[in-house]
Design a protein that fits this description.
Helix content is 41%, strand content 21%. It has 882 residues and is an alpha+beta fold. The chain has an 8-stranded mixed β-sheet, with no helix packed on it. Strands 17-18-19-21-20 form a 5-stranded mixed β-sheet, covered by helices on one side. The chain starts with 8 loop residues before the first strand and ends with a helix. Bound molecules: ligand BES and zinc ion. The site of ligand BES has 17 residues, from strand 20, helix 2 and helix 3. Zinc ion binds next to helix 3.
Length: 882
């Protein structure tokens, strides 16, 4: 382990590699504890590098077993080797071949980076810097090589051998019980996209013909016996491939496309060229074991990794500072895909909820950073909501600014000019500037400035002149290392709505025909003429820019938007704003503000809207009924937060809404009784979502009724969605029924780790003082393991991220528990440890008592010897003052 203070890497320090590696031949001799890797690389000096420079190869925990240069053993004085690197001191000033033999122990690899074993399957994870854990290499994204991989293994242990690219020669090695397979990937790629898999796997596959008529075999490989659960992923893959052809004219480029599901995986999934490796929770689905959201996630993650084939693989990143170039853009693409497959408005609301809960929180705390950071100590800590989600919002704003046609032309130009290269954010923006003739230099500030802009709105109506005026100002609060902020280019999609529902034409010189005003400075004034009645403004329709909105509208105006706006996102948003206002009032007032009247008006308005929406779009209706989360409320309060007060306000509001709407909710439940077989399609899922939100609210209003009804649903449920929704409701109603239901569920799904994760998660999220003890107990459950990231996230992650009152316990026990786990995982799996640790990032916003407890736990972690770079980076930034 690296124990020294990790060095800071800066964007400005970029310089091209001194050497290039044109081809790499790998021979991988799989063995559980002693896998040998023979790597033969064709190096040459980079014309753009420093002449005569030593060849400096990266390594990480490697054992060097042999080294030859152009067929001759390299004398000891010609190189320096350690587990962390290999330097050839005076390499030839011409092309040369280096043959390096290393040995690694995949079974002992608990970090799940490089080559490791998951449930007996050999697999790899090389992004961001895991390739150097397999062999010494120029492990940087701008060194692209053509790979040929020979994999050899015991035939009985690993009947399936997969690599990047296209399959070549394969066969038995007579008399040894071993066999081999050779894979060749013709597309030059960086080492982070390298992958191999070996193991006993079942598969489902089908032929796919690309738009130009090329045949491809697409396949999903899973644990034998689980093949039926891979069908949905295969179907999603096929739909993704077709969609990328239709929408972006991107065609697949190899003869095969393989997806492999493994149980132990640090992240969600990985886009290795032609060989995507997935966390099995984003592949395996059956109605009995997966919920509607699992199906939706599988569809999105399959699409995301597939879309990387163009945005990430064919065009990769020059350096890791450009991560958003592939991740933000690919998230945008997978969001567009999911919106086309499902309801666009419903999907948009979901995207914004995650953005607000995760990215806004990050942007408001000590870990805030620009979408393109300018320095890092540990790149693994920059796969963040900011790079991903805000990165996707920037691409969406670009589309709004340029319009469909120029955006499409810009994408095409980007694909054409950058194909086969390691590109930068500038290259991306240049493509759009070139096709549109626009100067995007102001817009580019979105990539370099951190923090969430706050847009304040003042409105004024002059009936005598029939004139309406909207004044907008924007301001971005300071973030760590960035005190001064400039104005951002904001596409403001807007319209005017009559409080009575009539349409009002927006006669405004500063509005484009599509209803977008482009705000480029810190303030803007929009004047509307011929406005005959006082309008209500509907601003940032569809969440056209990722900002916080401060609006001078009263509840009545907001409720008018809820009822009459033509923009579904803003209808939902209006209800959220009314709810947020009263929740914040309730959670922060000492005496308890009289919010009942306001809450009643909201509930009644929701009731009116529901009459239509529960039929028209049940998924949308379900979202209307979902209050802002405790995380969002806490963030809105911003400082001295008392999580218990937030929770009480949240509970009370739900109780009131459930009581006021009891009859409507009961009617909804009656009208949405499940009929027929389960189907994961969006319409059926929407009905289930509405039905289950109704149950949740009814239970908040009347726990005794809720307990009976949830127990009944649990017994009758024919699918995991309804079952889990019922169990979640029961989990918040203490008593025997709950404990029996939990015990029964564990018995029913004893052999299903992914289902037990849901069970761990529900229990870890119970907002009661007994929960920490319960979690402690569950760490000894036979199905729990600290070596499996999914288990850890289900149990510990749910406490930290989905249980505000118990994580932020006033006595500090929640913080101490998380700190213990972080320290335990620091050595075995630093990436998982560092991610859990980010839950502390809101520590400065809680009230002083909790703040002191959190700080002392962070300091305890910081004092620890042998901190991994991952954990040390997060803890240092979390504690830093500026
Ligand atoms: N390239 C990433 C996987 C990755 C993340 C590798 C971090 C190394 C470090 C992959 O494309 C990805 O983004 N996966 C996401 C899921 C996706 C749908 C946003 C993940 O793993 O969470
Ligand atoms: Zn990605």
């Amino acid at each position: 382990m690296r124990t020294d203070t990790p060095t800071v890497i800066g964007l400005d320090d970029y310089r091209p590699s001194d050497h290039l590696a044109d081809t790499i031949h790998l021979d991988i001799l799989l063995h559980p504890t002693a896998t040998r890797i023979v790597a033969e690389t064709a190096f040459r000096p980079n014309p753009a590098g420093r002449p005569g420079a030593p060849l400096v190869l990266d390594g990480d925990e490697l054992r060097l077993c042999g080294i030859e240069l152009d067929g001759q053993p390299l004398p000891a004085e010609a190189f320096e080797a350690s587990p962390q690197g290999l330097t050839v001191l005076a390499p030839p000033q011409r092309p040369f071949r280096l043959r390096v033999v290393t040995e690694v122990d995949p079974t002992a690899n608990t970090k799940l980076m490089g080559l490791y074993r998951s449930g007996g399957i050999y697999c790899t994870q090389c992004e961001a810097d895991g390739f150097r854990r397999i062999t010494y290499a120029l492990d940087r994204p701008d060194v692209l090589s053509v790979y040929t991989t020979r994999i050899e293994a015991d035939e009985s242990e690993a009947p399936t051998l997969l690599g990047n690219g296209n399959p070549g020669e394969a066969g038995a090695i007579p008399g040894t019980g071993r066999h081999f397979a050779i894979w060749h990937d013709p597309f030059p790629k960086p080492g982070y996209l390298f992958a191999v898999v070996g193991g006993r796997l079942g598969k489902v596959s089908k032929p796919f013909t690309t738009m130009s008529g090329r045949p491809v075999e697409i396949a999903v490989h899973v644990e034998p016996g689980k093949e039926p659960r891979a069908e949905y992923a295969l179907d999603a893959l096929e739909r993704s491939m077709r969609w990328d052809e239709e929408v972006f004219a991107r065609e697949y480029d190899l003869d095969v496309f393989n997806v492999v599901a493994v149980s132990d995986f640090n992240m969600g999934a990985m886009e290795n060229k032609g060989l995507n490796i997935f966390n099995d929770k984003y592949v395996l689905a059956s109605p009995e074991t997966a919920t509607d959201s699992d199906y939706a996630n599988i569809e999105a993650v399959i699409a995301h990794e597939y879309f990387h084939n163009w945005t990430g693989n064919r065009i990769t990143c020059r350096d890791w500072f450009q991560l958003c170039l592939k991740e933000g853009l690919t998230v945008f693409r997978d969001q567009e895909f999911s919106s086309d497959q499902r309801s666009r408005a419903v999907h948009r609301i979901g995207e914004v909820r995650t953005l607000r809960a995760r990215q806004f929180t990050e942007d408001a705390g000590p870990l805030a950073h620009p979408v393109r950071p300018n320095q890092f100590r540990e790149i693994n800590n920059f796969y963040t909501a900011t790079v991903y989600e805000k990165g996707a919002e920037i691409v969406r704003m670009l589309k709004t600014l340029l319009g469909e046609a120029d955006f499409a032309a810009g994408m095409t130009r980007f694909f054409e000019t950058c194909d086969g290269t390691a590109a930068t954010v500038e290259d991306f923006l240049d493509a759009f500037a070139a096709v549109s003739g626009r100067d995007l230099s102001d817009f580019a500030r979105w990539y370099v400035q951190s923090g969430t802009p706050v847009v304040t709105v003042r409105t004024e109506y002059d009936p005598a002149q029939a004139r309406y005026r909207i004044d907008l100002t924007q301001e971005t609060p300071p973030t760590p290392g960035q005190a001064e902020k400039g104005p951002l280019v904001l596409p403001v999609a807007l319209g005017l709505v009559s409080p009575t529902g009539a349409a009002i034409a927006a006669d405004c010189a500063d509005l484009r025909p599509d209803g977008v005003h482009v705000m480029a400075g810190s303030r803007a004034s929009l004047i509307f003429e011929n406005v005959r009645e006082r309008p209500v403004p509907s601003l940032f329709r569809g969440f056209s820019a990722p900002v916080k909105l401060r609006l001078d509208l009263g509840d009545d105006d907001l409720l008018a938007l809820l009822e009459h706006d033509s923009d579904p996102f803003n209808r939902w948003q209006a209800a959220q704003m009314v709810a947020m206002r009263l929740l914040v009032g309730q959670a922060t007032s000492e005496s308890g503000t009289p919010v009942e009247a306001s809450l009643l008006r909201l509930a009644l308005a929701l009731g009116r809207v529901l009459v239509v929406e529960s039929e028209r779009d049940p998924a949308f209706a379900a979202l209307l009924l979902s209050l802002p989360s405790e995380t969002e409320i806490a963030q809105e309060i911003g400082s001295d937060v008392d999580p218990d007060a937030v929770h009480r306000a949240w509970l009370a509001a739900r109780g009131t809404i459930g009581t006021v709407l009891a009859a409507d909710l009961a009617a909804i439940r009656a009208a949405t009784e499940p009929d027929g077989a389960y189907s994961p399609d969006a319409a059926s899922a929407g009905r289930r979502a509405l039905r289950n939100v109704a149950l949740d609210l009814l239970a908040s209003a009347d726990p005794a009724f809720g307990e009976r009804e949830a127990d009944r649903q649990l017994a009758a449920a024919g699918n995991m969605t309804d079952r889990l929704a019922a169990l979640a409701v029961l989990s918040r109603i203490p008593g025997d029924t709950r404990e029996r239901a939990l015990a029964r569920f564990a018995e029913d799904f004893a052999g299903e780790p992914l289902v037990l994760d849901k069970w761990f998660g529900i229990q870890a999220a119970i907002p009661e003082p007994g929960t920490l003890d319960r979690i402690h107990g569950l760490t000894s459950h036979p199905a729990f393991s600290f070596t499996n990231p999914n288990r850890v996230r289900a149990l510990v992650g749910s406490l930290a991220l989905a249980n505000p009152t118990q994580f932020h316990r006033a006595d500090g026990a929640g913080y101490a528990f998380l700190a213990d786990i972080v320290l335990m995982l620091n050595g075995s799996n630093p990436q998982v440890a560092a991610r859990l640790l980010t839950a502390f990032s809101t520590w400065r916003t809680v009230e002083p008592g909790r703040r002191a407890n959190a700080e002392s736990q962070l300091k305890r972690i910081a004092r620890e010897q042998n901190l991994s770079p991952d954990v040390s980076d997060i803890v240092a930034r979390s504690l830093s003052e500026a």
